[in-house]
Write a structure and sequence with these properties.
With 206 residues, this protein is of the alpha+beta class. The chain has eight helices and four strands, in the order E-H-H-E-H-H-H-H-H-E-E-H. Strand 3 and strand 4 form a beta hairpin.
Amino acid sequence: MWTLSYKAPLEEDKLERSPKPLSGDPFLGSVDAPVTVIEVADIRCPGCKFFFENVEPQLQHYYIKKGLVKFYFWDMIIDSVSENTSQATWCANDQGKYEEYRNLILVRSDSFDTAGPRSNYSSEYLVKMAEELGLERSAFSTCLESEKHLDRLNERYLQGQALNPNVFPTVFVDGRRLADGRFLFAEIGAEVEKSLAKQKESNEVN
């Protein structure tokens, strides 16, 4: 069960360290974007679905597509179904279709149904979706069956667990952790603007 709670924003001096993406980790946006936003969540959680439908489009419009934000989805795998699904998104990334594949997963996921029909996340169905997006079936299937990206996903999971996330999603903006449940666009956007203002001030000084 994923808890959705609302608390006061954390004081800046109490913010915990944030996840540390590696160079090969998939992301949305420009590699040169000045601000990094990380969503820590399980791909099948209802909060993730809410974020995808209500927050991410605004992040895309105002920041990601303008080259201002680099956005990472930090997979927190809760069971074997989520594990397979997250691996599939990374296999799609190998063929340059991470965003498209992840979007398709989220569009078709059952809103606010934490169990969901498990057949919809079977390897066979995940491969079928890859074919719908024009991915090469053999390469995708081999990637999925060999668990090519599982070690890295497990590393990310352990790193995420060390942050003690109380709700999914938990959001970080340039390493600053938003208070639990604070994942609405207004709150995230305010933190992004804070980062952009700091960078502008730093550039003017230098």
